[in-house]
Write a structure and sequence with these properties.
Two copies of one chain form a homodimer. The first copy, chain A, contains 20 helices and 26 strands. With 683 residues, chain A is of the alpha/beta class. Chain A has a seven-stranded mixed beta sheet with strand order 14-15-16-13-12-17-18, sandwiched between helices. In chain A, α2 runs antiparallel to α5, α3 packs antiparallel against α6 and α9 packs across α10. The longest helix of chain A has 25 residues. Chain A starts with a strand and ends in a 5-residue tail after the last strand.
């Protein structure tokens, strides 16, 4: 079976012999791969011409709904069954496959949910508050994010053929950028199957996603400054791609996530017998054996207090002794094969280099000398778990040689400073972890080690049961790390979406900025309803951004303050005791309660009758900017600032700029009132 | 005079002959430059070993205070006078010099102010809210920013010897990262003078800033993943540095800001005679002549509606005819020299290439044929303003050949789509501008063009008087652009600081995350005062993060609601009309006012007596999460979430997590109360 590519709306199958892809366990051919004859320049052009405009016409919420529908279509029992069945060919155990398949689908769900909750139902989004750039207020700034007008080229590693594609595709599509997926050859058959199901779902707009099975040809030659490459794989390949003359010349956005020599640190408080000691041993073993250790986030360096090194080693050896290697289809097997014989040989070579600097404690490189259950150890890519001890933890090799398989090295440390220094010797890691119930040790280590890590997992007896583990990136948190880890960043919720967008600083009059962004900015024109209709009487569609209500006035009396204090119980001295209030650095005497000011403001701006305004669900950025004294007269200027219609509800959010001023026109309080407002009823 | 470098706490002067740097107007030697024998690896080491730890020990507010003091020390009249005097050697007019010198110093002031207002008085800062990662709440995430542990290498261009240094130095030092400044040779004498004054001020911690006058030697060979390079200059040099094997291999953070072919668009509404037409002509002329057009942000392409092209050309020629080129020391001279004869020759070559695709309308390449006032046209680097007309605006050259001098090309466009397409032909620009009083045209153009620009200036009659102009980056807004502009980003307020920091995702129990970050996270341990002292009775230093008050209860009655409505005037139907409220999709009947809930909450948590709590200055992120009905009983859980002592005031901000729940333990409202709390009185 020759794998196909999906290009310009059609499946394309190369006519040459291709390269065989072998079953990791049996060594039998699973598929062949080739992209010979594929028009990659045409794919880029199609994505730019068809895919981009189609995606950019959708709002973030519409794209989020598409991701959710995609996730649902991939989640059916038949779908999952076929994905899992094919995943077995990669050498994965059922648990390994779930990490990849269910993990990938859940990333789609999380991005869908975050897109709806954290982005507006619009095609662009704002970044930060407006910047006031002038004295008179006629000139201001606002940062805006828009999708890049190019193509996101998503280059995935062999170890997560499903998750690797989906964790990149979800944020790019949510951003509004079409993608070209390029899986690593070894396991591309699984990526191709999942991609095929996505295409069949009919949920992807034309040109939004294309697939290259096989080499990318001269694709990089055609990239521009509007394109983005998101790469996961080896540091050597990352370096080569990032150094491509076209990538350099056109400042192509390039994000790399490369394997790193991640460490896990056992705290000095975590004595043998403690919860954290046991949790640590379990985690190191898990990271060595899940995916046969083929995770860029796996623990390669186990940093332990030197006085517990012996106990750690003993506990690890005991646990590793129970690992059963073989065909994951066999019951009782707990660790499968590596993805290919080539991978196995690379790991062997790395372990040979490591063993020059560290003692090989457990495991072997000799294929004949360990048990493989239910499979031929010569044809499958098997290795046993391999544990080393770096008696001299300051040797270079243990911090620089990565064995991308079931391999870890125990390194004893002397002090928290030594542990942090050893962690930094990895020269940049995707993730580190700390197992300790002493938060002051954890804080000290984190503040030293954070600069070298993209993620730090902090485990103790309280968090362990719900911890997602050292090796699992989450869509909510950034994934990537400095230096050896590639210097990139993916995921992290909406942060990962912004990698596919351009941040542009806009400068102009507040009125113009409001017209461009759709969000009212202080200083912009305030619109009056010509007929004087109160804004609370208008449905969502009928409210105009900038529409403003200027209310009547209300004078605050000492009696109001007394009554408010009596009825709420808030008798804070600044409201009740004239002399004490005057001693306060901010007041000249008794002042009105802040909560009284906002309550009276509502009394001024609210239109009481039943109507389209459904609820006031919150309030943001309230600042009391001047004291209100008895006798002061308040007035509210209430402006429709932003509307966010919900896709699937008969209402939307409306944000109102609320400015409360006194008789001298000075602003005494400013905040955003958040309401739900009904759409027009269906005719 | 040989320029010196400042390395490892000492001034270093090379002993070789160096390279002469010539006065741009007179051609006489101003200084010589060489870094022969400079130990650049030692400088990196010194910055990492001495500068970094020293800076990281300071809080953001302390670093901000240092920037302000630096700015003040450079602002004295004597200082400014000597800077301006030397700046004249670069060919700058007094106005040009002010852009560079005053512009640079004001960037220090803005960063100082933003550091104090927008960053905490702490050594690290948080990014975004906590992420809840588990059902039971024992496992959460929080992103944290810490300074990189390396060196920021700041490579500046020749055209802004002061601003160029300071706009990079301010955010890096504020981030807590030591810098090595490397000015372009041509004008390094001015950078060296300002740097010398900064060193003399004694305000910079040891190792925080070093200077290389001359070549950088093998500096790049020694960079690591903890270092950052921030480069401004030509695209070719950016490409070379970014492609350096060590930069690629170690994922050195690299930010480039390169010259681009920026455009300015005249709107179709801006007919000859309109305000915007006149503003446009003035801006194009200004951008051609300020700094003799040697600005990476200058307008190279003037996009005008084809029907006004003739009028625009005529107006530009008239205005350009009044420009007086010469020695800026001569009264009446409005445009000075280019920075060097080499620069002049490069511009001439570029104009020759351009004139193959566009008609040369005004100006000349012949040095004998234009007037130079008060200087020798053969020895000074003079050029007249040069205007071209690209009758065929779709030719490649006009969008790709940059003449880095007083040169612009007028390009007629047919439609808004055509204008956007021509803008994009620049393949990425630092800045674009639009002159139009038609906001719908502006919006349409911005949404198409934003992806290709780092900044877009939108000018009309309302904003023009206060506009800072097409060519001026502001510290508040990002500076940089995609593609040809280098794909980087500087400034943008605190955004520019974060370039020098590592974002790390922390995962762990809320209690551990609180201990590490110093900010209380929901779900973390709540501390009780052992003696039951109310938190309002404690000074800033005595409050502990997590310290919690659980209040008594208060039952809300229908009478409370009636009374609140009567006293505030807020008679919204959901509070007053049981049937109307029940028709609302969110309520079962009359509900308490949200403002009543927060007022009653204050009645529960406030301790009334005079004490360390000075004021409630605001409230954030209020959400009403469940309706409160008459008969419901409220209780408040009030937790000290974050403390932010001010450096120079006897108080600080305290943020309180405020959770209002009902008799069933359900949260009905959640928000942060913001207060000012006094420090302990001095003994």
């Amino acid at each position: 079976m020759m794998l196909s590519s999906y290009a310009q709306g059609h499946w394309y199958t190369a006519r040459d012999e291709g390269t065989p892809l072998l079953h990791a366990v049996t060594g039998e051919e699973v598929a062949r791969i080739s992209s010979a004859g594929l028009d990659v320049a045409g794919m880029l052009d199609y994505a730019r011409r068809v895919g981009g405009p189609g995606l950019r016409a959708l709002t973030f919420h519409q794209r989020a709904a598409m991701l959710k529908a995609l996730a649902q279509s991939l989640s059916g029992p038949e779908r999952k069954a076929e994905f899992h069945a094919l995943s077995a060919a990669t050498g994965a155990t059922p648990a390994d496959s779930a990490l990849d398949i269910e993990g990938g689908i859940s990333t789609l769900f999380v991005y869908s949910s975050k897109g709806r909750r954290e982005l507006p139902n619009d095609t662009v989004c704002l970044d930060g508050p407006p910047e006031l750039l002038s004295r008179k207020g006629t000139f201001a700034g606002q940062h805006l994010y828009v999708p890049l007008h190019g193509v996101a080229v998503l280059i995935d590693a062999f170890n997560f053929p499903v998750w690797g594609m989906l964790e990149k595709l979800a944020p790019a599509l949510l951003a509004g950028m079409p993608v070209i997926v390029k899986p690593a050859s070894q396991t591309a058959y699984l990526t191709e199957l999942v991609f095929r199901r996505m295409v069949e779902s009919g949920l992807l707009p034309d040109g939004a996603a294309q697939l290259i099975c096989g080499g990318v040809g001269d694709l990089l030659e055609h990239l521009t400054g509007q394109d983005a490459v998101s790469f996961t794989g080896s540091a050597a390949t990352a370096q080569k791609l990032r150094g491509h003359p076209v990538v350099l010349r056109n400042s192509v956005r390039f994000n790399a996530e490369a394997d790193s020599l991640n460490c896990s640190v056992l705290g000095p408080d975590a004595k043998p017998g403690s919860d954290e000691f046991d949790l640590y041993v379990r985690e190191v073993v898990r990271e060595m054996t899940v995916k046969a250790g083929q995770k860029c986030t796996a623990i390669r360096r186990a940093l332990v207090p030197s006085e517990y090194a012996g106990a750690v080693v003993e506990a690890l050896r005991e646990a590793l002794g129970k690992v059963r290697v073989g065909d994951p289809a066999e019951s009782g097997v707990t660790m499968g094969a590596l993805a290919s014989l080539g991978q196995r040989d690379e790991v062997r070579r790395a372990v040979e280099r490591l063993s020059g600097a560290a003692e090989l404690l457990q495991g072997t490189l000799d294929p004949g000398s360990f048990e493989v259950e239910g499979a031929d150890p010569e044809r499958g890519a098997f290795l046993p778990p391999i544990l080393l001890l770096g008696g001299d933890p300051d040797r270079d090799e243990v911090h620089t040689v990565e064995a991308f398989g079931p391999v870890s090295t125990v390194l004893p440390y002397q002090s928290v400073g030594h542990a942090a220094a050893l962690a930094a010797r990895g020269e940049g890691s995707l993730v580190g972890s700390v197992f300790s119930f002493d938060d002051s040790f954890v804080r000290q280590l984190v503040l030293e080690a954070a600069a070298h890590h993209g993620r730090l997992l902090l485990v103790n007896r309280e968090s362990a049961a719900e911890s997602t583990g050292h090796g699992s990136p989450l869509p909510h948190l950034v994934h990537g790390g400095p230096g050896r880890a590639g210097g990139g960043e993916e995921l992290g919720g909406i942060r990962g979406v912004l990698h596919y967008m351009q941040r542009t600083a806009l400068q102009g009059s507040p009125t113009t900025l409001t017209a461009v962004t759709g969000r009212w900015i202080p200083g912009a024109a305030r619109l009056q309803d010509p007929a004087g209709v109160h804004p609370f009487r208008k449905h969502l569609e009928d409210l105009r951004i900038g529409e403003t209500l200027r209310t009547g006035t209300r004078t605050v009396t000492l009696e109001d303050i007394e009554r408010f204090a009596a009825s709420t119980g808030d008798r804070f001295y600044a409201h009740m005791d004239n002399e004490a209030a005057a001693r306060n650095p901010f007041f000249d005497g008794r002042v009105a309660h802040g909560y009284l000011i906002v309550a009276l403001a509502a009394g001024l701006f609210v239109d009481p009758d039943e109507g389209p305004v459904l609820a006031n669900y919150g309030l943001e950025n309230l600042r009391f900017t001047k004291p209100v004294y008895p006798g002061d007269t308040l007035r509210v200027t209430f402006t429709c600032k932003e509307k966010n219609p919900r896709e699937a509800e008969p209402y939307g959010e409306v944000r109102w700029d609320t400015e409360v001023s006194n008789q001298d026109g000075e602003v005494v309080a400013r905040y955003d009132v958040l309401t739900l407002v009904a759409k027009r009823p269906a005719p």
